[in-house]
C-alpha cells in the first residue's frame, strides 16, 4: 500500500489553520498539526492526525523538530500573530515577537523541510499572507510581515522550483477568525466589509479550500503565485 502523503500545518489549533487540517485530512493526507496551544481548539481527528505543541518564536528549535517528524510532503505556513498596536505605541518586544513568528519562523521551516523535498524532487509549500501586504494597515509590523511573506514566497519558488518543489501563497481578505475579532475595531471591520461583494467576512473553510488545491492539485506551472481570496475587498 502506498504511503500517505504528510502535511505539516502550523497555527493549526483554530481559524484558517484548523480548517486547513480538516481540508487536507478530507483530501486523504496525513496531517501533523503544530501549534503553541491547543486549549480551546481541540482537534477531532477525521483521519491520521498528530498534534505537536511548539512555540515558533524559538527559532533554534525549528530544524531539530522538523528532523524528528519524518517525511513531510506539504508544508502550510499558517501561524501568525497580530498585535493591533498603533504605530506610535509599538514596543520593541511586540515588534520582535511578531516578526519572529510571522516572518522568520516560516523561513526557517521552509529551509528545514525543503532539504528532504529537494532530495525527493517533490513537495508543496503554501504560505499564508494577507491583503495587508498591499495596503495601509493599522498594525504596521503585521503589514510588513505579510509583505515579507509575499517576497520570500517568490524567492523560495525561484530557488526550489528547479528541484521540483512548488511554493505559493494565499492572501485572504477579512475572514471570520479570532484574529479579526480581536484586532479589528468595529468601525475598521465595517470599513473592510463595505468593499466585499457578498457583504460578509469569509469563512476559514473557504480559504482552506484554496490551500487544499495548492497543496494537492494545482498544476506545476502554479509556482511563486499569490492567490487573493478577498471577495472583492481588494483588487490588484
Question: Brief description of this entry?
Answer:
The protein is an alpha/beta fold and 236 residues long. The protein has helices spanning 15-26, 62-67, 92-120, 140-160, 178-183, 186-194, 204-216; strands at residues 6-10, 30-35, 49-53, 74-77, 123-128, 165-172, 226-229.
The total beta strand count reads: 7
CATH architecture descriptor text: 3-Layer(aba) Sandwich
Q: Briefly note the structural class of the backbone.
A: alpha/beta
Runs with pLDDT <50, length 5+? none
Task: Fill in the CATH topology.
Answer: Rossmann fold
Encode the helix/strand succession as letters: EHEEHEHEHEHHHE
Distance between the first and last residues' Cα: 45 Å
Determine and state the CATH class: Alpha Beta
- The overall pLDDT, averaged over residues, is 91
Topology (SSEs and partners):
Layout (H helix, E strand, L loop, with lengths): L5 E5 L4 H12 L3 E6 L13 E5 L8 H6 L6 E4 L14 H29 L2 E6 L11 H21 L4 E8 L5 H6 L2 H9 L9 H13 L9 E4 L7
Notable traits:
alpha/beta, single chain, 16% strand, 7 strands, 7 helices, globular, 7-stranded parallel beta sheet, 41% helix, 236 residues, Rossmann fold
Description:
The protein is an alpha/beta fold and 236 residues long. It has one domain (6-229): Rossmann fold, CATH 3.40.50.720. 41% of the residues lie in helices and 16% in strands. It has seven helices and seven strands. A seven-stranded parallel β-sheet has the order 3-2-1-4-5-6-7, sandwiched between helices. The model has no long low-confidence stretch (mean pLDDT 91).
Amino acid at each position: 500500500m502506498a504511503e500517505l502523503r504528510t502535511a505539516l500545518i502550523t497555527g493549526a489549533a483554530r481559524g484558517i489553520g484548523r480548517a486547513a487540517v480538516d481540508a487536507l485530512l478530507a483530501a486523504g493526507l496525513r496531517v501533523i498539526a503544530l501549534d503553541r496551544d491547543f486549549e480551546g481548539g481541540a482537534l477531532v481527528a477525521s483521519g491520521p492526525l498528530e498534534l505537536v505543541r511548539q512555540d515558533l518564536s524559538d527559532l533554534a528549535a525549528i530544524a531539530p523538530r522538523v528532523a524528528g517528524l519524518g517525511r513531510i510532503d506539504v508544508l502550510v505556513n499558517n501561524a501568525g500573530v497580530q498585535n493591533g498596536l498603533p504605530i506610535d505605541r509599538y514596543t520593541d518586544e511586540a515588534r520582535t515577537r511578531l516578526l519572529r513568528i510571522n516572518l522568520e519562523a516560516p523561513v526557517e521551516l521552509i529551509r528545514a523541510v525543503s532539504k528532504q523535498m529537494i532530495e525527493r524532487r517533490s513537495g508543496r509549500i503554501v504560505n499564508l499572507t494577507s491583503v495587508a501586504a498591499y495596503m495601509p494597515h493599522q498594525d504596521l509590523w503585521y503589514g510588513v510581515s505579510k509583505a515579507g511573506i509575499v517576497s520570500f514566497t517568490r524567492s523560495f519558488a525561484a530557488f526550489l522550483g528547479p528541484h521540483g518543489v512548488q511554493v505559493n501563497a494565499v492572501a485572504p481578505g477579512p475572514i471570520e477568525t479570532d484574529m479579526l475579532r480581536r484586532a479589528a475595531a468595529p468601525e475598521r471591520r465595517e470599513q473592510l466589509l463595505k468593499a466585499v461583494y457578498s457583504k460578509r467576512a469569509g469563512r476559514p473553510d473557504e480559504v482552506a479550500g484554496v490551500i487544499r488545491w495548492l497543496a494537492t492539485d494545482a498544476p506545476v506551472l502554479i509556482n511563486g503565485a499569490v492567490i487573493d481570496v478577498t471577495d472583492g475587498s481588494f483588487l490588484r
